[in-house]
Amino acid sequence: MDLNWAEISVRTTREEMELIAQAFLDAGAAGVVYDDPAEERAARAAAAGETVPAPQPEEPVTVQAYLPDDEDLAVRLEALKGGIARLAQADGFDAAACAPEVCHVKDADWEDNWKAYFHTQRVGEHIVIQPTWEAYAAQPEDIVLRLDPESAFGTGTHPTTAMCLRALETLVRPGMRVFDVGTGSGVLAIAAAKLGAREVVAMDYARPAAAVAAKNVRENGVEDVVQTGVSDLLQGFSGQADLIAANIIADIILRLFDELRDHLAPGGVLLASGIIDERLAEVEASATAHGLTVARVHEDAGWAALEIRAGGSV
Fold it and tell me: Which residues lie across from 202 on neighbouring strands?
């Protein structure tokens, strides 16, 4: 039987979109997508070889997620509205201007809507993202990640994820232990496993996302390397990792710094992404205040990803 879905959209500003995304996740969404006109213009300009235009700060951005249209939907919507109200009060923006809009769609329509935008794409030097419903003739040096992100939306094509995948190609070394915090579809965890990591632990705060990640891990045949589960940041992880990947949002990365001491090995690297350019300096300053070193900054289409090193030998 087809499952009906509620497409929830919130129009906001670039400055507040991370907070709105967090409200969605707190309300039970497995992931979000951003409809950012500035990002679309940048992609068109880059494809045409033109100068990438600067984003307009006041231009609205839409944050969108899908929730099951079932008996729990009303509760989740109230949780979303309440979360937006609390964040608005703390951050000083207008909650009324961020009222959620709801559109009810059927399962088949939902799948067709978003699958129309997700196709096989080369992301790094070797990494290729292949939707499970498309055919692809791999080249000898390709590292193919077969994905069906379902409601987790981790397709690997958004700049935040693409920067992480490109960085993993240089950061992952054989025998590494890797943690993937907020794994979503599991794309970063699967990439780490296929790049030679010895052990990968991939967890997400949202139980549906963790289930999607587990399914994709099996699809890629790396279940002997990747362990999936549910965790609030690093609370469910044990021991230390040589590399921690966290493609989340700036506010959550700031919280993550407080938990690194027990989980990032000396000389290890935190790959932190999902940071809009306006928050970059704040995240860098917090990393320094926690005794960490920002070793490299990646930037793409108004987003940043940081390679942050812990103290100790590399």
Answer: 180, 228
Stretch(es) of the chain classified as CATH 3.40.50.150 = 119-309
Distances (CA, A) of 174 to 39, 168, 243, 251, 270: 35, 12, 12, 32, 17
Tokens of 56: 């307009």
pTM as predicted = 0.73
What token pair was written down for 309?
Answer: 């090193």
Where do the CATH 3.30.70 domains begin and end in the chain? 5-114
Average pLDDT for 282-297: 94
The model's pLDDT over 153-193, given as tens digits with 9 standing for 90+, comes to 566 667 888 899 999 999 999 999 999 998 888 999 999 99
Confidence label for 216 from pLDDT (cuts 50, 70 and 90) = very high
Task: Let me know: does 243 contact 310? Beta carbons within 8 Å.
Answer: no
283-291 long-range Cβ contacts below 8 angstroms, 24+ apart: 283/250, 283/253, 283/254, 286/254, 286/257, 287/257, 290/257, 290/258, 290/260
Q: How far apart are CA 147 and CA 143, in angstroms?
A: 13
Judged on CB neighbours under 10 Å (0-12, 13-18, 19+), 249 is buried
- Chain mean pLDDT for the chain: 85
Check whether domain 5-114 has CATH 2.60.120, yes or no:
no
Domain 119-309: top CATH class: alpha beta
